[in-house]
Amino acid sequence: MLTENPILTRPRESAEDLFTALDEALRKPARQQPDWADHPARQRTRQDLALLPPLTLPAEIDLLRTRLAAVARGEAFLLQGGDCAETFADTTEAHIRANVSTLVQLEVALTRCTGWPVVTVGRLAGQYAKPRSQPQDADGLPSYRGDLVNAIEPDPLLRQPDPHRMMLAYQHSNVTLNLVRALCGPGNFPPARLRALFAGFAEGSAAGERFAGLLAELDRGLRYTDRSWSRELFSSHEALVLDYERALVRLDPDHPGGPRLYSGATHFPWIGERTRQWDGAHLAFAAQLANPIGLKIGPGATALEVSEYLHRLDPHKEPGRVTLITRMGSDRVRALLPPIVREVEASGHRVVWQCDPMHANGEVTECGRKTRQFDRIVDEVQGFFEVHRLLGTHPGGLHLELTGEDVTECLGGAAEITPSGLARRYETACDPRLNGDQALELTLLVAEMLRG
Ligand code: PEP
Ligand code: MN
């Protein structure tokens, strides 16, 4: 049976209507915005950004839409990861290379061990704004809200929100994406480098022996991979600061279904747990964009609430239009996820189900460091797989905070990082990340889960 293409059969809207609807959306209340409404540089920076080229283009974003539609149909797997908060100081070749290398390594491990096509998305080139639970930090200073807003240094002046930082965030995103695109181009990421990374893990990690079979398979496959291969990697970040996000919206006048608005700030924006108010600006803003949209769903969300979000964000029921990024906690995922999955599946929306096993499994050590236990992270992923297996739905993806650098921010893993061991290299500007070895160990466990 021929089905109608929802993109081509939708009513055409004029460019003017689209921008009117966008501005109306942005008049709704928005949480977590920097306190800079009256700053003299605000309007000027927004105008300057609006004149600059977009960082991402409609055709790339449409390609990601087709990739995510395949995930939603149960034909592919979504891997998303990167820093909790990117920083301007870490816009270095070493850091970007380390994170991209790790993402490619995880993608190759997943796809080659399971046969599943993998769609890879970095938390990068724009992940510079953070929502905060408290307006002030433990020292009574205004909270650090990401390099796009203020500085991490504990100095009252530098903690004042500064709209100029939006321009810096754009520039840092631009140079990051430039290197990422180059690294993914033909020949710039030789399989030999990947083989060396896997060999390093096989020999250096205590988990090397446990996964010796899979690692040997990977090594054999890569030996015969053409050195001029290229990779496909999309960008994503939390669409939090609406002055920045609005300034980078661009019109695609040539879309076959009529003009469309795209975020030119990223391929894949997501809405965070703290800004998903049903009547708020973030949801209304995302609804106006043609980009695929991620939505974080925490333990407080009800099934009814989630289906109302989908009604707003996915009125045409396009497979993969929305990725529901569930973050329930290892102790609650098995109880809280099933009613949501049942309600959504019954509603006819074809979403990507993605597990974020990081954000509801945080804890604070006696020394006051934010951390997460590797075993709880694994347990939430395990619970996510169990629920989807039980309900016959596709456990479509994984959303991780990670870096390829050898940091010590999460506890456990094969290296058995202990609370006192966290001090060795605890560098995150916000939440604790898995290091390269921990991320690969988790991914190999997930590959086993996917193999069933
Ligand atoms: C994040 O992804 O860094 C984040 C803040 O997540 P959440 O909105 O799920 O708390
Ligand atoms: Mn985080």
Automatic annotation (TrEMBL):
Phosphoenolpyruvate binds at residues 123, 273-274, 296, 327. It holds the Pfam family DAHP_synth_2. InterPro entries: Aldolase_TIM, DAHP_synth_2. The keyword Amino-acid biosynthesis applies. Mn(2+) binds at residues 84, 359, 401, 431. Its EC number is 2.5.1.54. Its cofactor is Mn(2+); Co(2+); Cd(2+). Transmembrane segments: none annotated. It catalyses: D-erythrose 4-phosphate + phosphoenolpyruvate + H2O = 7-phospho-2-dehydro-3-deoxy-D-arabino-heptonate + phosphate. Gene3D superfamilies: Aldolase class I. Pathway: Metabolic intermediate biosynthesis; chorismate biosynthesis; chorismate from D-erythrose 4-phosphate and phosphoenolpyruvate: step 1/7. Keywords: Amino-acid biosynthesis, Aromatic amino acid biosynthesis, Cadmium, Cobalt, Manganese, Transferase. Binds 1 divalent cation per subunit. The enzyme is active with manganese, cobalt or cadmium ions. GO terms for molecular function: 3-deoxy-7-phosphoheptulonate synthase activity. One of its GO terms (biological process) is aromatic amino acid family biosynthetic process. Belongs to the class-II DAHP synthase family. This is Phospho-2-dehydro-3-deoxyheptonate aldolase. It comes from Crossiella cryophila.
